[in-house]
Amino acid sequence: MYKAKAVKEVLKMKKFITVMPLQPKNKLMKSNYLAVGNSRLQCDFDTSFPVLTIINGYVEKDDDIEIIILRQQHENAIANYDIFTEEISSLSDRKGFNYKLNVIDIPYDNRPSVHLNTFTKLAEQINDEDFVNACVTYGTKPLSQVEIMTINYAYRAKHNCSIGAIVYGEYDHNENIAKVYDITSLFFMDEMVRTISEHGVKNP
Questions:
Q1: Read out DSSP for the chain?
Q2: Distance (Å) of CA 90 to CA 61, 83, 84, 192
Q3: pLDDT in 10s for each residue of the chain, 204 residues
Q4: What is the distance between the alpha carbons of residues 1 and 13, in angstroms, rounded to a whole number?
Q5: I need a labelling partner for 162 at 20 to 30 A (CA). Which of 46, 147, 156, 192 fits?
């Protein structure tokens, strides 16, 4: 009689990419974000950092995670990092996971050469088998592009690298409510368009 052999599951490292906000500390809004498009993002606590909605929804007790932080050399971003460390520590205590903060300090400069260098540094942090998530709420628009470029690189170039959630947080001034949107489908739509184009489909 044969015994079934246990297949060892490869544990993916859960990584979360985020950018420190440039708002002054006294204008950094702390809210209970309403999840739109993904119920796993709904939290029972207030936060100033939408990336915590992903961490809360996708991290389990005793997980080891890495949070990759792009921190522009701007006094507000540096000050807000201290607030972030307090909030992630509090969430870790509540949920019982372990975390590593991987800070990438970058110039406060929107020249393409600076962003390409940032992309290189960020891409170096992604490995095969990683489970990659990102928040594109804060930072300049080009810096959000760098995050998306890195996710594209991870998905296409790394072995068995999977994408969890990509989120964008906003404050709706009409409804006076903070919302966090799951925009992961936009990433996969872009990937689908690329694949269709490569195959020369005329009527996608």
A1: -PPPPPPPPPPPPEEEEEE---S-GGG---B-PEEES-GGG--SS-BS-THHHHHHHH--TT-EEEEEEEEESSHHHHHHHHHHHHHHHHHHHHHT-EEEEEEEEE-S---HHHHHHHHHHHHTT--TT-EEEEE-SSS-HHHHHHHHHHHHHHHHHSTT-EEEEEEEEEEETTTTEEEEEE-HHHHHHHHHHHHHHHTT-S--
A2: 14, 11, 10, 39
A3: 323 333 334 457 999 999 999 999 888 989 999 999 999 999 999 999 999 999 999 999 999 999 999 999 999 999 999 999 999 999 999 999 999 999 999 999 999 999 999 999 999 999 999 999 999 999 999 999 999 999 999 999 999 999 999 999 999 888 889 999 999 988 667 566 666 666 566 666
A4: 37
A5: 46
Of residues 87, 77, 99, the one with CA closest to residue 33: 87
Sign of the Cα pseudo-torsion (192, 195, 198, 199, in order): negative
